[in-house]
Specification:
The chain is α/β, with parallel strands linked by helices. The protein has helices at 24-30, 61-64, 71-84, 122-131, 157-166, 187-204, 224-237, 254-269, 295-307, 323-329, 332-338, and strands at residues 56-59, 93-96, 135-141, 171-175, 210-213, 240-242, 280-282, 312-314, 347-352, 355-361, 367-373, 379-384, 395-400, 406-409, 412-418, 423-431. Helices cover 28% and strands 20% of the residues. The radius of gyration is 21 Å and the shape is globular.
Length: 432
């Protein structure tokens, strides 16, 4: 759960063009002193790098929201991760989102678990997840209240961080739904100060807790200079950040789900220059397996998220995955593109209306090339090897990471009759 209303998803679909205003010079000129260096650099005072590759796992929010959240749902989906083999392929962080607590803090100011939903408490949930070889994630807010109107961490950062550490929490998703902005102060400064307090409190526990920041999502429509600046300091305070609107909920129409996937891809694809290895842009959950999406649409989201080095966090009922959905989520070769140790987010190198081609360098010298047809009719998509960023070679081996078929080409990378909303994903190797 996060930030701006889901109804805002359709308000603005950013263009697919590369963001030219993200240069380090502009960011340095406009950033506060604590965020005045280029986004591609790190500093010893930055939050520890606890996510060298994009996090993978499961979160209840998009599918279950508050009404469907309980201990059994969380642990059943955790068991499904293990039983299906997805945990072995990297999906290991199980995160409990909003509404897990009571509406009031306890007598010592402590957060109180809703025992109607979690009868054994959160330490028990964490212990069960750890026994399965999984990691335990939890949700809070840096403001007065969470989005669901439960107690936020404002004024209790150190206390809450210690409590989370005592429960064995490995991952914190910190929202910003109800952040009070005092008169005379800038919204950005208040958010920066509160997320800094949360970041320091987590570090002070001594427990390695991956920190997911939602601050940038609250600045998506504040103008690119501010938005990008917030992303920059988020990359110093945490390991990943939500950039914009929530992905659609389970009860949304199929058209709304696809519009949400497409919209989140469009804004996130423009943020590649603000990401760096170990600091990840997060366009929100994978809906693969969710009812209403076609196989091509599910595959497109998985392929595009992998190209963008996005966190792969499923939000569906994993116990009801179809064989097709399980194959998409578990495709080792697509996962390898996402988890490539080089840690580079793929860039759009060509676009034509609703179609786009993305290119992503991989550590072994290969490139991942995605040809995405976002339109409503089938299209043949192509790009030259040079335009895709490939070095000159006598030929290129193209491996389709979905079908497993390989072909060779002398110059042009092509995907014929790509269906509507489909993506062809190649791993391309120069051959000399």
């Amino acid at each position: 759960m996060s930030h701006p209303s889901v109804s805002r998803i359709g308000r603005t679909l950013l263009g697919l063009t590369t963001v030219a205003a993200c240069s380090a010079g502009l960011l340095a000129a406009t950033a506060p002193a604590s965020a005045a260096r280029a986004p591609g650099t790190a500093h010893e005072s930055d939050y520890p790098n606890l996510a060298p590759t994009p996090p993978m796992g499961w979160n209840n929010w998009s599918y279950y929201q508050c009404g469907g959240l309980n201990e059994q749902v969380v642990l059943d989906n955790a068991r499904a991760l293990v039983r299906s083999g997805l945990a072995h392929k990297g999906y290991r962080t199980v995160t409990v989102d909003d509404c897990w607590m009571t509406k009031e803090r306890g007598p010592q100011g402590e957060l109180v678990v809703d025992t109607a939903k979690f009868p054994h408490g959160m330490a028990y949930v964490g212990a069960q997840l750890h026994r399965m070889g999984l990691k335990f994630g939890i949700y809070e807010d840096v403001g007065k209240l969470t989005c669901g109107k439960y107690p936020g961490s404002l004024g209790h950062f150190e206390q809450d961080a210690k409590l989370f550490a005592s429960w064995g929490v490995d991952y914190l998703k910190a929202d910003g739904c109800n952040v009070p902005v005092p008169s005379g102060q800038s919204k950005e400064k208040v958010f920066h100060d509160l997320y800094t307090q949360q970041s320091r409190a987590l570090r002070a526990t001594g427990r390695p807790i991956t920190f997911s920041i939602s601050a940038p999502a609250y600045f998506q429509f504040a103008g690119d200079a501010v938005w990008h600046r917030v992303i920059t300091w988020s990359g110093q305070l945490g390991n990943l950040w939500r950039g914009g609107a929530d992905i659609a909920l389970q009860q949304s129409t199929p058209a709304a789900k696809w519009a949400s996937i497409s919209g989140n891809f469009r804004y996130n694809a423009n943020l590649a220059d603000l990401q760096r290895p170990g600091r990840w842009n997060d366009p929100d959950f994978l809906l693969v397996g969710d009812s209403g999406l076609s196989r091509d649409e599910m595959q497109s989201q998985m392929s595009l998220w992998a190209m963008m080095a996005a966190p792969l966090i499923s939000s569906t009922d994993l116990g009801k995955l179809s064989p097709a959905a399980l194959a998409i989520l578990g495709n080792r070769e697509v996962i390898a593109v996402d988890q490539d140790p080089l840690g580079v987010q793929g860039q759009i190198v060509q676009q034509d209306g609703d179609a786009a081609v993305l290119s992503k360098p991989l550590r072994n010298g290969d490139r991942a090339i995605a040809l995405f047809n976002g339109g409503s009719t089938a299209r043949t998509l192509s790009i030259t090897a040079r335009a895709a960023g490939l070095p000159a070679a006598q030929s290129y081996r193209l491996r389709d990471l979905v079908t497993g078929r390989s072909v060779r080409t002398a110059r042009t990378i092509i995907a014929r009759k790509v269906p509507p909303h489909a993506t062809v994903l190649y791993r391309v190797r120069p051959e000399r």
